[in-house]
Fold Acetylglutamate kinase.
Amino acid sequence: MIKETLKVIKIGGKLIEDETKLQAFLLDFIALQGPKILVHGGGNMATEIAAKLGFETKMIDGRRITDENSLKVIVMTYAGWINKTIVGKLQALNCNAIGLCGADGRSIISKKRKVAEIDFGFVGDIETINTSFINSLLKAGMVPVFSAISCTSEGELLNTNGDSVAAEIAMSMSELYEPQLFYLFGKNGVLADVTNEESVIEHIDRNKYGELLKDKVITEGMLPKLQNCFEALEKGVSKICLGNERLLSKTSLHTEIVK
Ligand SMILES: Nc1ncnc2c1ncn2[C@@H]1O[C@H](COP(=O)(O)OP(=O)(O)O)[C@@H](O)[C@H]1O
Ligand SMILES: CC(=O)N[C@@H](CCC(=O)OP(=O)(O)O)C(=O)O
């Protein structure tokens, strides 16, 4: 049976905070035909708000150490201001968006990460995606907009990297669709030299990924983006691309992850 394409798009913090870039992206997004899901981060804004409240932010390998105070800040920032602002803008463009975190409709159930070498605090690793609930929204013509907050089956909200949320949704939805995954962030793609926007690496396979990790070409926020990509390709995601805010509309520079 040929499955319908489902586009899962993740937008990052730097894009969200730039009004012009966000609007350009949203116009491309609403023009996409067929079922689609938007996932957003917002790490930068959470860090700024936490600083204003006098809380220091610690990140390890692109993931936030989330204590009780930072959990409150991130829930308010991601599931509140950012999620509702994006939904409002999409509704203004006649796109029937619905904003969600993992608790809504038990859509993203996670488990608190066990303390190993690092105690990440209130950070969740995703266990199940409620594919039938998400599909019912899609079938009703809605566009789910997910913030990077998951929830345990006991109702505890947990911080979950937005890149992982997007990858897990794409992988799980492959039961029903042929998902494609797009990461839109502040650069033209994965760069061989992070200071040179023209140095986009057009294709990355497992071997190349290993080399890039070994040579520390991929660091910080790029790590969670690429971590799940090869698993996603094995688990039914048919295409994975990374690029800037115009990735959906243009054919110029970007990175594609290949088997
Ligand atoms: N090889 C690389 N190519 C591009 N960006 C990289 C690379 N290595 C590390 N990065 C960093 O990763 C960042 C993207 O991750 P992140 O800030 O989490 O994005 P977002 O929040 O927009 O999704 C880039 O802005 C850049 O600073
Ligand atoms: C556990 C963890 O790291 N969660 C991320 C979730 C937000 C996110 O992914 O934001 P960007 O896409 O803007 O980076 C964080 O709090 O930064």
In short: The two ends are 23 Å apart (CA to CA). Residues 12-15, 41, 43, 62, 185-187, 190-191, 194, 217-222 surround adenosine-5'-diphosphate (ligand 1) (CB under 6 Å).
